[in-house]
Amino acid sequence: MTSPATAATAPNPVLRIAPAAPAAAAAYFGAGLAFHADVSDVASALAAGGDPGFVVLDSRSTGSWDQGHVPGAIHLPTALIPEQAERLLDKSVPVVTYCWGPGCNGAARAALALAELGFQVKEMLGGFEYWAREGFAYETWEGREQRAADPLTSPVDSEDCGC
User: Fold this and answer.
1) What is the pLDDT along the chain (163 residues), one digit of tens a residue?
2) How far apart are CA 99 and CA 145, in angstroms?
3) Cα–Cα distance between 47 and 75 in angstroms, integer?
């Protein structure tokens, strides 16, 4: 059993490894934002009307696409990127990739394949799962659908989470 004095001086799991220096943290988090966009920001940019300055790419299978996808997204499964990306996409327009959700790294694989071909690319964090969970409309093979926002992922009384 640990004595109270030992417990008070032992580092907790959060601080067992000290936080990075502020400059290193700024570089790390700034780099992360260069590689990622979240669902709410993508939805907001698309809803603003006009050209958002990027295209959204769904890298999942046709069956997954048919179950639901972001309106206006381009469907290009990851395996087909090497042979079709240059025909379907413009290298001067950034691409935002997504797949199923946080438990799937398909969007990262698609982003890698596109970057290797010379495309500017970001990954949409949360994927299709969080698109639907945050209450944004989506399209299926049967038409347009929308679910109520999950209060664990989206503010109930506001469109702005304050992030």
Assistant:
1) 555 555 566 789 999 999 999 999 999 999 999 999 999 999 999 999 889 999 999 999 999 999 999 999 999 999 999 999 999 999 999 999 999 999 999 999 999 999 999 999 999 999 999 999 999 999 999 999 899 888 888 877 766 766 7
2) 18
3) 20
